[in-house]
Specification:
With about 280 residues, the chain is of the alpha+beta class. The chain has a single domain, classed as Double-stranded beta-helix (4-Layer Sandwich). It contains seven helices and 18 strands. The strands form five sheets. Strands 1, 2, 3, 4, 5, 8, 16 and 18 form an eight-stranded mixed β-sheet that branches. Strands 15-9-17 form a three-stranded antiparallel β-sheet. The longest helix has 15 residues. It is globular, with a radius of gyration of 18 Å. The relative contact order is 0.25. The mean pLDDT is about 95.
Length: about 280
């Protein structure tokens, strides 16, 4: 097993691993450490069954089930399907999900720890995913801004995001809304393992900064979001079939990019690793 950095601030590619076979504890520990060190781990050329995908993801911890149950279309409810594909006229996955900068499931009181995304069908062009290091973004802030945001908190709202992203769809049910109430998190969080500080912001999902006048809060949030995704902090992943990408949602943001969804199909399966700590 070998590790090769993908970029200067985040990402490492691991080679010499077949995830369809059980990993011994030593090799899994090396992958787990690489995730702490680099925030994102890429393992290419995998041929996984749905069960093998779930089994590997469970090595990191308990898995969560998405509130949009209509897109849990495999025999494994732990797999959230992202796709523009339809079978018998019915979508098998959520299309145009995550086309904004965000951290997965930041709208939970205890957000998820990480995500394990596996590519089954990918377009020959487009549909890249951008990842940004929130460590690097925080470190690059000037001292005045760090002092200003040190104790600020922000509202994360799934219902607000859903209304913006999917306004042409059926609204969330009352049950779905009840499972995803608005939550308040710090704008700066400390990683529970590395103890490094990072920005904890996002587009659309973050509704407002608490305690600031609306206009001032919006201006600050816009500035922090723009800074957080500066080119110096971003790794662009160009997908191949068989890629497994694992990322730490506690230290990154990411964003899907468009593709020609009339000409091409895309099928991605994501397992989401349950968090254990409230952001602090």
């Amino acid at each position: 097993m070998e590790l090769q950095p993908l970029g200067p601030v985040l990402g490492v590619e691991v080679t010499g691993v077949d995830l369809s076979e059980p990993l011994d504890n030593e090799r899994f520990a090396a992958i787990r450490q690489a995730l702490n060190d680099h925030c994102l781990v890429l393992i290419r050329g995998q041929e996984l069954t749905e069960g093998e995908h779930v089994a590997f993801a469970k090595r990191f911890g308990d898995l969560q089930v998405h509130v949009l149950k209509q897109f849990l279309t495999t025999p494994y409810p732990e797999l959230y399907v992202l796709s523009n594909k339809a079978v018998d006229g019915k979508p098998i996955g959520n299309h145009k999900e995550g086309w904004n900068w965000h951290s997965d499931w930041s709208y939970y009181e205890v957000p998820c720890f990480g995500s394990v995304l596996y590519s089954r069908e990918v377009p020959p062009e487009g549909a890249d995913t951008l990842f940004a290091s929130m460590y690097a973004a925080y470190d690059a802030l000037d001292p005045e801004t760090k002092a200003k945001i040190a104790d600020l908190k922000a509202v994360h709202s799934y219902s607000g995001y859903y209304a913006k992203a999917f306004g042409d769809r059926e609204p969330l049910s009352e049950e779905q809304k009840a499972k995803t109430p608005d939550v308040v998190h710090p704008v700066v969080r400390t990683h529970p393992e590395t103890r490094r500080k990072s920005l904890f912001v996002g587009e659309d999902i973050v509704k407002e900064i608490c305690g600031l006048p609306v206009a001032e809060g919006k201006a600050l949030l816009d500035r922090l979001n723009a800074h957080a995704v500066s080119d110096d902090f971003v790794y662009r992943h160009k997908w191949r079939v068989g890629d497994v990408v694992i990322w730490d949602n506690r230290s990154t943001m990411h964003k899907a990019t468009p593709y020609d969804d009339k000409a091409y199909t895309r099928v991605m399966h994501r397992a989401t690793i349950k968090g254990t700590d409230r952001p602090a």
